[in-house]
Specification:
The chain has two domains: 69 residues; 110 residues, P-loop containing nucleotide triphosphate hydrolases (Rossmann fold), CATH 3.40.50.300. The chain is 45% helix and 11% strand. It contains nine helices and five strands; from the N terminus they run H-H-H-E-H-E-H-E-H-E-E-H-H-H. It is elongated, with a radius of gyration of 18 Å.
Amino acid sequence: MRISVPRYIVPEISKMQAMKPWSRKLYRALMRPPPRLLFREAQLHEAKTLLARGESLLVRGPPGVGKTTLARISAKEVRVGTVYIPGFRCRVYSCLRAAVREDALNVIDDYGMILRDSRVVELVRSLPFKVVVVHTGLFAKELEGLREVVMPPYTEEEILEILEERAARLSLPVGEETLRLLAREAAAYSGSVRIALMMLADYLAEQLGGSPL
């Protein structure tokens, strides 16, 4: 048996729209925050330590490696208000300006999706306390000087263990051989757990024929 990375993975922004409704339902269940962030303990400790000292933070890595989850978990440890701003929904200056708060920790996710004109650059640079989440290839002057936490791609074995945890938590009817195939494909693509979970959702939706969890 061979399981291939679906074509809709690229571009990533269209992935959810291209999935069938039942696949999307399974995917959302699989994407619910885990009890703990596996294989990211060192990065999580570093992020919490920096934020506890009041330092702003840059979280960098490829898609699907836990950047957003790490940012959200570490932000909960800070004893100030937190504002979460998804860049894919808040893409222009007016939206960003309305969302940020000077007296809060501003978590700006998917910063590379924001249209970075001079006003956005100056606004982000001026925020006193922030976590900015970016993909590997984005380097911007307004982010220079931020302490950086790097999230590497997951390995095949790490993805497999994460898939096994999700499958066990949801009591999913899927065998280890299938999970290993999914882990291998996702590791070869970009080390993305998100892609592995999408493929698992599609596989299960097809096998279950739309039956509820």
